[in-house]
Target: enoyl-CoA hydratase
Amino acid sequence: KDVDPMVARNENASTNDSTQFTPTPQRKYRFFQNVEVTSEGVAIVRLDNREKKVNTLSFALSDEAKIMWNSDIHNNTDIKAVIFTSAKPDTFIAGADIFDIQQLEDKTQLLSYIERELQFFQRMKSKGVPLIAAIDGPALGGGLEWALWCDYRICTDNPKTKLGLPEVKLGLLPGFGGTQNLPALVGVQNAMDMMLTGKDIRPNKAKKMGLVDLVVAPQSLEKVAIHTAKGLVDGTVKKSKPKKKSLLNRFIEDTPPGQYMMWQQINKLVQKNTNGNYPSPFAIIDCVKYGLAHPSGNDKFKHEREQFTKLAQTNESEALIGIFDGMTAMKKHQYGEDAAVPVKKVAVIGAGLMGAGIAQVTAQKGYEVLLKDRDDVAVGRGLSYMSDNWDKKVKRRRMTKFERNKNMSAVVGLSDDSESWKKHFSGADLVIEAVFEEISLKRRIVEEIESVTPDHCIFATNTSAIPIADIAQGARRPERIIGMHYFSPVPSMPLLEIIPHGGTADCATATAFEVGTKQGKTCIVVKDVPGFYVNRCLGPFLVEVSALAKDGVSLEALDKAMKNFGMPVGPATLADEVGIDVVSHVASFLSNADLGVRMEGGDISLMQNMIGKGWLGKKSGQGFYSYNGKKKTINSDVKAYLKEFSSRDLGLKEKEIQDRMVSRFVNEAVKCLEDEIIADPVVGDIGLVFGTGFAPFRGGPFRYLDTVGVDKYCDLMNGFAEKYGPQFEPCQLLKDHAASGKKF
Ligand SMILES: NC(=O)c1ccc[n+]([C@@H]2O[C@H](COP(=O)([O-])OP(=O)(O)OC[C@H]3O[C@@H](n4cnc5c(N)ncnc54)[C@H](O)[C@@H]3O)[C@@H](O)[C@H]2O)c1
Model:
């Protein structure tokens, strides 16, 4: 969700086109304001991309930076110090421009591009005057690397200020000297934490770890920077030095046995978190180790850019960039910004797991929230859920106490215990319903709410499976009814499916999109069919779990196979987390829906019988696994039951287990495209990566098919169809692409 290091394709399209910038007497540069030099010889370089809201490091900017430096600064002996800052409000440099990398057919050209960029930074340093970075807003990726080449860093305490090297999230590494300059400044452990997770560092933490030297108010940034520059020139301010390490950190980072232990630990952690599927964290480790072994000279930078260039050529990086691109594209309003109903007050009905989560993410974004349940006890539970979550954030310093209190006071708890709820609802602009999954109840709620809310109010339902058209049937304002399908747990799941039914007006879709995006969700609009998109794809996948169990595959082997494929958890663990009853409900609902043969081949009685035995998953302490001890173990009763359940043991190998599971999933995604349930493959990829955790390094089902080869995949499925039955038959669109060789 937080991936905003680099600005994607659409954002940058015009930065890289041939738009000619014509200098005027007022403005010499496209990416910089004219350099200003104070009477004391402090040059101020203000980055300011004329065509964009944010500054990004692009090939074009780099070329111009060199010209600017050479003509305005390098030979000007009056200049005694240089400040780099941004003329844009709330943003320093948001990262390097990914579009540049994507456009290069021959990625090895990156080597010379990065080398030229480094030469620029080194030339900057060679002037021998103090360089100061004055940062307000994000300094990410290449932006922070620029600041790392400076002698002194000042940032503001603006809530928008964050510093980080998030390249790992795109399968890359910091290539402008970051893997070398960062450890030298903040220590190896801090640097590895930042580079391997890609996390943002907030101003106070940045100061504490020595990433910046000063934190100031945004209004005084430039003044303090100029004052500091003068101090660095006359010696009253000292250049920043790495923070003094504690005795323990000196042992860990600076002695051979300490380093040995540290690298072992880091490797173990990375291996565990990536399952060996992501090359970039290992390349980052390699660059830092190389730098420690070759501290002087430029070899370490050469090694870094070679590693960067290698990563830029991997499928993994291409896939992760594809997801990032898709996510950025999806944030753009496609349903008419003006069409959206202006929303100030959002009412949530049902303060259960989903309702409380929806209320939480809504209040966090500054909306007034009404949270209603049947009685005060249920509302109280919902309110506690939110306040507990916010308390945890305060504890982790992810939120201030003030923000927590502000959020809490934005939520009004209401129940049927008092009639006053109706008065509150008369001011609601959007209602999101998250009561039990019963059509009669949902219809009753629609009727009740329509009678107390204003005519412009949009009614959204968070149903997992009931067709939206059925819920809208008999409504007074069906055109204002829409599905907003959130995923559990709402605060952390990044996806929202928006489901207009046949008669939904554009204003309702636009409103759902607007609010969902503001809630921090990536929104995909999908057709009103059973299971919508994500659950529809999960249906055949889950059926295959029981089919494989019948063929003698153990739960451990199944979970391991899918984790190795790149899923965050195996299907048995997933079912336990979601709840066996919920999964079984979805599976049997979809079995009775319109998927036909695609839901066959398994035996959903597996989970129905488990429900009968009270094995509901994690919530009941027992599902496929037992959760009674500290570590989850396979439930021995389930093991015995599965033995009974299985009818044969085919001794299947891991690859076949993976292919059987994944092909059911992927085929359904393509069928959804064929049936226009999703608009295009990008929506399909984003939906399954964000909604189910489909191996992100594979980029989603469509990119996966393109990588493996559609024709090869069709052959694989046809083979399975012959061996196991028609549930494996590839859908028409898959066959068409296989025949024509067309990629998704
Ligand atoms: N749990 C999930 O993973 C998930 C995911 C997506 C969608 N959903 C859907 O979200 C909805 C809610 O699911 P949940 O998991 O939060 O259920 P839940 O049982 O935790 O919460 C439902 C809440 O609705 C309240 N409620 C029932 N009747 C009401 C009424 N007449 N007025 C006001 N409140 C009423 C209940 O008291 C309860 O607090 C369901 O439609 C479900 O299918 C669930």
Residues 349-355, 372-374, 378, 434-437, 441, 462-464, 486-488 surround nicotinamide-adenine-dinucleotide (CB under 6 Å).
